[in-house]
Structures are given as structure tokens and as C-alpha cells.
Write the C-alpha cells for this entry.
Amino acid sequence: MAHPSPAEQATTIVPPLLTPPMVRLLVASLGALGSFYLLIPVVPAFVAGTGGGGMGAGLCTGVLMLGTVLAELAAPSLITRHGYRTVVALALLLLGAPAALLPASSWPPVVLGVCLLRGAGAGMVFVAGAALVAELAPDVRRAEVLGVYGAAVGIPSIVCLPSGVWLGTHVGFAPVFLTAAALALLSLWAVRGLPARSARVEPSPVKVSRRAGEVGGSARPAVVFAAVALVAGVLLTFLPLSLAAAPGLAAVALLVQACITPLARWAAGRYGDRYGGSLLLPAVVAVVAGTAGLACAHGPLAVIAGVTLFGAGFGAAQNVTLALMFADVSGPGYARASMLWNLAYDAGMGVGAVGFGLLVASTGYPAGFALTAAVLLPVLVPAWRERRRFPAHPA
């Protein structure tokens, strides 16, 4: 009976999905983002309740996001200079230690300083986490590992945002602050198993520039994702206001979207290594269809159908665009691609929310949602052009 040769056996070996360093990264990321999301609604409520009013509450969120964006811009240089392990450890310290100061002081400069530092910690995790996944994942399963990571890091927003509000109301602010500090600081144990430096070899500039010239580099998927994030900023900000007459429906709709998005992100990763960029066009179409459906939704079922389509497209677009952007780089380039992707996310969300806020006063919500869907139509062209690209390039 013939036995397969060693070469044939090697071709059938499937690299593991979760290695020990990947598990440690998941633990560190879940602790960091659990701490981050737990306090997003709590700190503004704390400030408003101690005399800061609506202005103080808004400043908290604004300063938090300022710290996030500034850290995202700085993260690639920090990773290049100090390595992943140090940057992730610093991020956990910035998220945890300042939160422990909040029970001792409600003085606005202290609270805003805490928000700035915690935002910086979150920004480092956003960039370093995704880049480190690309480092640790085997090339032939990179999209799948990104999908698992994306689904996992979506859990803290689902669990911790409502938990923070409930705990702040029923238990008090101080225990929530200390819980957020503990989540981040206790996760430091996982950092020891993370790689200090990039384990990959950066390809030559000639090779990178040639591939970027052929496929458009990271710019095209970044533009597509920024446009999708713009729609997300609109819906997540204004859908509850458009359903003010049915607050229960608004809560259910946001919960459905929050659950569907990470599931779609995982599914896109599960099949992304096989189908690559061909998944991006259906993702954008789903976002367009869901947003347009909300423009003419009459009744709860239509609203739920709209947010389900939107959540599915949004989650899939997250994974596909990130995987495609990683396809053009290696080594230190992962951090830069991760930074660009995160900035596209933040900028799209912000521009969408602000722009729609200026628009809706003259159009109303249904017409505003329809116009938002129309904004995405030109993006179908670059999404279609990505159909022949793949996130991994096995040798």
C-alpha cells in the first residue's frame, strides 16, 4: 500500500488557528477593550451628575476619541521602536491605572486627563492588536484568524456598554471604575507570551511597489471601508432618534446590529482566504440595501431586516478590507496598514455622524437615510475591482 511522500504530507498540514501567542493576544485585547467600553457611557454620566452637565459629558467623549486618534497615528512608530509586547503592555497600563484615579476625584481636569490617557491606550490596542494578528497568523489562514479576532473583540462592546450603564445606576460609579481598572491591569499577565518584535521579513521595496501598482495598494480598500464606516456613523448615531416614538424597537434594532456585525466579520474571515476580495462587493451591497431599507421601513420587521442587512455588510467589510490591506505589506507594514484602517474607521464614523446631523434638519430621517445609501453607490466600483484579490499569498 502506497504511503504519501513527506512533500505530499506537508501540503495537507493545516496550520493551527489559535496558537499560544494568539490566545494571549485575545486575552490582552478582551481585557483592554472590556475596560474601554465599560466606561464609555459611565464617565460622561459621572461628570454630568457631579456638575459638569451636558458640556462636560460631551468633552469626556471628545477627549477620549482625541486620545484614541493621536495614539493610532503614533502606534506604528512606537511598535517599530519598542516592539509589540511593550506597546500592548503600555496600552493596558494606560487603560487601567488612570481609571483607578476616578473614585478619588471628579475634578474636570483630572477626569479629562484620564479620558485622554485611556483613549491613547485604546488607540494602541486597536492598531497593535490587528497588526499582531497579521504577524501571528499563517499566510494561508490570515483572513480566517482576522475573522476570529474581529468577532472576539466585538464581544466587549456588546457586553460592557450596557453593563456599564446598569452597574453605574444600581451599584455606583466607583465599583465600575475599579472594575475597568482591574480588567486592564489583570490582563498584563498575558503580555509575557507576545512577541517583542516582528518575526517576518519585510519584502523588498521593488516587490511591494510592483504589487501595489497592480492592485491599487491599501488605498482602495481603505476608501471603501471609510465609506462603509460613514454609513455606520449615521445609523448608530441617528437610528435611535429616528425611532424615538418606539424606544423599545430602537434598543432591539441596535442589539441585533451589534450581534450580527461580529458574526459577519467571523464568517467573512472563515471564507475570506478562499474567496478574497470577491466578498467585498456583496458586503457593500448589503450595507446599501440595509440603509435604503431603513429609509422606507414601515413596521418593526422592516427595521430589523434593514439593520440585519447593514450589520452583515458592515461586519464582512471590516474583515475583507483589513485582510486586503495586510496583503500588500509585511513586517513593520502591518502596523501602518492597521493604523490606516483604524483611521478610516474613525474618520468615516465621525464624518458620517456630523454630516448627517447637518443634513437631517432639512431632509428628515427617511430621505436622509436614502441619501446616505446613495453616497455608497460610487463605492461599488472600487469594491468590484477588488474581486480578484486575495488576503493571503501562500508560497
